Amino acid sequence: MTLKQAQERSLGHIKNLEKGFQKQVAKWFQECWSKKLYVLIYCSSRTQEEQEELYKKGRVPGHPGPKVTNARGYPPQSLHIDQGEGARAIDFVPLVQGGTGSFSAGWDDEEAYEIAHKIAKSVGGLRRLDWETPHLEDASVKGWRELISPQKETEAKKEKKSIFKKNPWSSR
Which CATH architecture best describes the domain 3-166? Predict the structure, then answer.
């Protein structure tokens, strides 16, 4: 893969993101590349079906390999699943240059991942998951439940009034 191909593919994924998150990811991507840390964004949005297939990996007969995610597709438990405004997560891999000048995925390049995560932290608005190294997500969202039912978040913030405190004689 050439750097131009990696950049074009990554920018295509950035376009699939929710607008606020898109700006943060674009800033992070630009910062990585300006430091000669070439990263490839290989995933942004997924369908619920794609997410469910990933979840089955390593769990269900006929889906061999290690477990790759804890998030189900049904209900949509991943920030990769577009809830109507764009995806709020990306998966990336550092690129390493081969002897022929082409680039390939450096899946085991822990040092490059660490630098990319530090850049993400300095840019702000991006959160990494300790158990999923190549993943960054929108730090403005607490989790998938907030996206499925935003009214729950609003309701949780409302002050709950206790009938028991007002009327100590009432039963719980």
Answer: 2-Layer Sandwich (3.30)
